[in-house]
Amino acid sequence: MKIAVTVKQVPDSWAEKKLVNGRVDRESVDAVLNDLDEYAIEEALRICEANGGTTDDGGEHTITLISMGPTRAQEAVRKGLSMGATNAIVITDPALAGADAMATSEVLAKAIADGGYDFVISGVESTDARMSIVPAMISARLGHAQLTFANKVSVDVSSKKISINRITDTGEVEMEANFPAVVSVVEKINEPRYPSFKGIMAAKKKEISTISGSATSGTEVLESNARPPKAAGQKIEDDGSAAEKLVNFLVERKLI
Question: Domain segments of the chain: what residues?
Answer without folding.
Answer: 2-211
